[in-house]
């Protein structure tokens, strides 16, 4: 059912598309945040890495460098290693950062451990390797110690050199007056006791929460060293959320467009075909792709176009044939009327009246045939299907034919009396009558009528004759309206070329077919019409019961 409904496919496609877009957005956020987190970690370490490498470089010898590193490790409570450069494999990006006196940061997500690699300015053969398992307030409060250790070499010029260092930091580093900071008395008291403090601030803007580290200056009670505010990492800032949302909506709109384009294209094709039909072009046909509603619409349009085109052609052929067929009896009637007006002989006048009456009867028969054919060609006729005993129809036609004194032998291969088929009696009678009449017209001596139900559950009627038969190349043409294979013979035997065409249309509306071949028994033409013996499954049980009851009788 899903593949046969274009609307279910669109709704299902939208659900799948939403899921895919949501998954795409989630993966995109993860990828972007991985890069953002890496850049955030690097930005936090760049400034302090420069201070640490400067502090190590100022040591006069290797032993003092090692001592400085040991003191730094104790202060930060983090393991810091002095390693050979050839033992550390660096990527090109990491090597570039170290050459720029920045830190190369590696994050192990499985163990939640960060590794920081620092270069030493005057010692390219060694690296500083720091393992950061956890970074808390204790490490935060230790950071100002490294900055003040750097500034101690510039007494009285701390602010000037701190401004030069600012370019190395991604956050503000400054010396401020303690009175200018929004601190309470307890925080000021802790600074007076030479303790660093960490301030957390929630910002209502897009920056979110930030952290500031305030540390007392060793040479002044009124001034403090302030690091920050340092923004904490925000996994979903407004800019990222807005960007991902807009991108997801764009991808979703492209997906929806992709789902609707095929239907739009098919609707455009239907509209083009209808405009062509409106303009009189009946040759346009739509491609039938798939089995959904649009395919059903295309198939219905094609069937409608075929039917309309067939009706138009049939109407044109009918008009040409009718005008041709009517001329002869009308001309004979006019000729007979002229003779009546001039002939004074009573017997001759009676003879002319009789001939005119026959021509009028011929006109009535022709009109009846034309009306029947036109009714069957105009559209689906209203059939009142019922259970018909096939033997009764065949016997009735055989009796009516014998009553015409045709001097032909009628052979009836009677089907079982209990055999019933679904059909409309009137039209089924017309089929048998037309086929038998056609056979009488062209046979030599014998006509054989038979009927029944074959092994495929199809009802059939078979009419054979011992005439000359129909050439194979003409067997399809005999069912065309007003078709005559031998015009002179038809004129002699009567008929208008509509009988077999009417049979063909009745077979079509019965849901069956009519075909002609050579009779294996009589050697002439054999016409066989087949159609579904049962049209209503609900009646199958009663049908079988009727057959069994008939056999038991």
From TrEMBL:
It is a multi-pass membrane protein. Its EC number is 2.7.13.3. Pfam families: HAMP, HATPase_c, HisKA. InterPro entries: 2C_sensor_his_kinase (IPR050980), HAMP_dom (IPR003660), HATPase_C_sf (IPR036890), HATPase_dom (IPR003594), His_kinase_dom (IPR005467), HisK_dim/P_dom (IPR003661), HisK_dim/P_sf (IPR036097), Sig_transdc_His_kin-like_C (IPR004358). Signal peptide: none annotated. It is found in: Cell membrane. Its main location: membrane. SUPFAM superfamilies: ATPase domain of HSP90 chaperone/DNA topoisomerase II/histidine kinase, HAMP domain-like, Homodimeric domain of signal transducing histidine kinase. PROSITE patterns: HAMP (PS50885), HIS_KIN (PS50109). Residues 321-535 form the Histidine kinase domain. Residues 263-313 form the HAMP domain. The chain crosses the membrane at residues 6-29, 240-260. Keywords: ATP-binding, Cell membrane, Kinase, Membrane, Nucleotide-binding, Phosphoprotein, Transferase, Transmembrane, Transmembrane helix. It catalyses: ATP + protein L-histidine = ADP + protein N-phospho-L-histidine. One of its GO terms (molecular function) is kinase activity. It is an enzyme of class 2 (transferase). This is histidine kinase. It comes from Acinetobacter portensis.
